[in-house]
Amino acid sequence: MSHRTTAATSPERENHVPKLSVVVPMHNVEAFAESTLRSLAANAHPDFEFLLVDDCSTDATPWVIDRWAEKLPGARVIRHETNRGIAQARNSGIDAAEGEFVTFLDGDDWYGPRHLAGMVRAMEDLGCDFARTDHVQATGTERVIRRPPAAVRNAVMDPRDGITPADTETMVDYPFVWAGIYRRHLFDDGGMRFVTELRTAEDRLWIWRLHLTARTYASLGLHGVFYRRGVATSLTQIKDDRQLDFIPAYDALLRDVREDREADRFLLKAVRTYCAMIAFHIGKVNEYEPAAAQRLRRETRAALQRMPEQALEETLKTIDSTRSRLLSRLRDGRKAA
């Protein structure tokens, strides 16, 4: 058995189908777990359940989880016997979820009061498959509101219209899965699971697949989820080869788009986004561990060489000259950085 689930269930909650399931993956977040779980308590509701997924933490995180699970209404604890990564932690929560809606919160982030009730209310009013929200980026004591680049707010739209245009920041460039709420039917029959082989960039592929799969969505003017930026334990801060998982993530995306009924509509956006990710990582290659840096140069060159040629050439012609020059040199085997 790869994981086990425990619950603190009162008799009146038995046989009760919750309205919302909140999936909270946690791994070695002892410094932040208290504030995260306290924020869940501030959002507790008889119709909400909280799935606390301990991904085999080796610090005090399990102790903090157990202490809060005893007093947090609707809490269920899922424990992985081995560390399996955030993608599997989210999937374990999805598999256990019973709510009509599902949302996610990372173990080092937190909610403002009544944020969850606001999301549920908006989903019931709009009736769409999923909705994305603003979030508050917290860097030390600084707070900045980040908004999804949607065309309109609080209106139902076609998710496919949120993918393009290629040369503009769009909804697929807002990869924060925890800044959203999703109807349970999207996950039926094993659908919309995170790719467990990806240690990073799993969210970027997931968001693209969400926009290609769902029928309706909305962007909500809510900003009650707080994203703790620059945390040392965050996977965004690592400098080893786990960061290179964006390459298989975007390779999988290109395969999806090529097989899509509207491949011609989305292929340029997919290639352009892949190129932007390559340029971003190559631009900071000297920060990486030596072996990871060498592998990054080698594998991104190969990625550029296997991209659809016409879409790649169009991208190199239309992006800024700095990135175009860097990517061209990398593709041709010249020194890129």
UniProtKB/TrEMBL annotation:
Keywords: Transferase. Transmembrane segments: none annotated. GO terms for molecular function: hexosyltransferase activity. The keyword Transferase applies. Residues 21-151 form the Glycosyltransferase 2-like domain. Gene3D superfamilies: Spore Coat Polysaccharide Biosynthesis Protein SpsA, Chain A (3.90.550.10). This is Glycosyltransferase involved in cell wall biosynthesis.
